[in-house]
């Protein structure tokens, strides 16, 4: 097989700009890339139990070869551990190790590791540099890019957090080969999202050949991950803190998806699975508002189903509970939600809706 070429996407944020590098066997370059950014000596490495078993030794070796001494913190796997307690565990380990203001943290793992470590970096010593090394498809195309960091609260998802941009994102598609099938599929939901909100060609390509991503072929995965990263980078550059509206389009499918996760106590669905259901729900709401036609709803639902993702709100989840969870969402303001509605594949718009407006059209 010929070598797979890396693709580099620049997130343009002035003095805080950084690269998202997508390629194969990038884990082995982590130490030299950290050194190139001007870091040296001690660094923090936060990973999860499952990811650590697979890649901790490899990453520690790459860091050691470049002269780094990593302080390793291993946290439990699962969204249920994206909590203040886990954050405190990271604080304790790093502070006891004597970290300093120029100690770089490395987040090696999926969205939970990236979010919790990112928030730790934003908080410790009033801000430490962080490198995101996402190991799930969902994190590579979405969560690791853009600087959103957070932990969950029983009231809702990601309610305690901060914006804290990384100084580098290293997306090694080779690690996706060890992902459980269910997690790979969950990541594809975010890939589909990018197609719906702004890349009709990406969406059509997935419709023509869904196996292009299902097989895990690095040669096929690199351009798909890079395409999503380019779109995320452009949106973040235009609206870093979700104040002007551009970044809000990234929430397509997330209004109902986040509510579904909260109502089911974050234990029934992976994030991408909930978002898949939420995207079909958003398309149905959009059609109910007269903003898109039935063909668009069918294309979105059809592609997600072909990719093996759930597409319907389960019958045992009361819509009243979904509405209550939406009202508690941090994106709700004055009783209204900036709902991301679809007009056609590749184009969305924001519509102010109440939670009741949404559930009435599910």
Mean pLDDT comes to 94
Low-confidence stretches: none
Helix content: 40-55%
Briefly note the structural class of the backbone. Answer: alpha/beta
Number of helices, where a helix is a run of at least 4 consecutive DSSP H or I residues: 14
Q: Per DSSP, what share of the residues sits in E-state strands of 2 or more residues?
A: 15-25%
Order of helices and strands: EEHEHEHEHEHEEEHHHHHHHHEEEH
Shape: globular
The strand order across the widest sheet is: 1-2-9-6-5-3-4
- Major sheet details: 7 strands, mixed
Distance between the termini: 47 Å
Q: How many runs of DSSP E, i.e. beta strands?
A: 12
Radius of gyration (CA) equals 20 Å
Descriptive report:
This protein is α/β, with parallel strands linked by helices. The protein has helices at 30-36, 49-65, 84-96, 111-123, 137-143, 181-198, 200-208, 211-214, 218-238, 254-263, 271-288, 294-306, 319-328, 355-359; strands at 7-11, 18-23, 42-48, 69-75, 104-109, 130-134, 148-153, 156-163, 168-172, 332-333, 336-344, 347-353. A seven-stranded mixed sheet has the order 1-2-9-6-5-3-4, sandwiched between helices. Strands 10-11-12 form a three-stranded antiparallel sheet. A hairpin with a 2-residue loop joins strand 7 (148-153) and strand 8 (156-163). Helix 3 packs across helix 4 (111-123) and helix 10 (254-263) crosses helix 11. The protein is globular. The termini are far apart. The model has no long low-confidence stretch (mean pLDDT 94).
């Amino acid at each position: 097989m010929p070598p797979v070429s890396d693709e580099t996407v620049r997130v343009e944020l002035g003095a805080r700009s950084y690269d998202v590098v997508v390629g194969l066997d990038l884990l082995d370059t982590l130490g030299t890339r950290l050194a190139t950014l001007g870091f040296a000596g001690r660094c923090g490495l936060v990973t999860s139990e499952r990811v650590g078993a697979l890649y901790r030794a490899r990453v520690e070796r790459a860091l050691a070869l470049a002269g780094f001494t990593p302080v390793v913190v291993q946290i439990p796997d699962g969204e249920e551990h994206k909590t203040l307690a886990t954050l405190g565990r990271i604080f304790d380990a790093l502070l006891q190790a004597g970290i300093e203001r120029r100690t770089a943290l490395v987040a090696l793992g999926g969205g939970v590791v990236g979010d919790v470590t990112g928030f730790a970096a934003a908080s410790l010593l009033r801000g430490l540099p962080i490198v995101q090394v996402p190991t799930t498809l969902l994190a590579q195309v979405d969560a690791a890019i853009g600087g959103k960091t957070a932990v969950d609260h029983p009231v809702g998802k990601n309610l305690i957090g901060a914006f804290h941009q990384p100084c580098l994102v290293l997306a090694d598609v080779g690690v996706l080969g060890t992902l459980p099938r269910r997690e790979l599929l969950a990541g594809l939901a975010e890939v589909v999202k990018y197609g719906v909100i702004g890349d009709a060609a990406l969406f059509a390509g997935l419709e023509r050949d869904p196996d292009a991503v299902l097989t895990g072929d690095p040669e096929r995965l690199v351009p798909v991950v890079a395409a999503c990263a380019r779109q995320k980078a452009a949106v973040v550059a235009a609206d870093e803190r979700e104040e002007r509206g551009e970044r809000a389009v990234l929430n397509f499918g997330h209004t109902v998806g986040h509510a579904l996760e909260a109502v089911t106590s974050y234990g029934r669905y992976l994030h991408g699975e909930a978002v898949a259901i939420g995207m079909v729900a958003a398309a149905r709401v959009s059609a109910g508002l007269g903003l898109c036609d039935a063909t668009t709803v069918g294309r979105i639902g059809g592609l997600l189903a072909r990719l093996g993702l759930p597409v319907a709100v389960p019958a045992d989840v009361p819509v009243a509970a979904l509405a209550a969870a939406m009202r508690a969402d941090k994106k709700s303001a004055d009783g209204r939600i900036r709902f991301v509605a679809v007009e056609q594949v590749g184009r969305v718009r924001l519509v102010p809706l109440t939670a009741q407006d949404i559930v009435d059209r599910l």
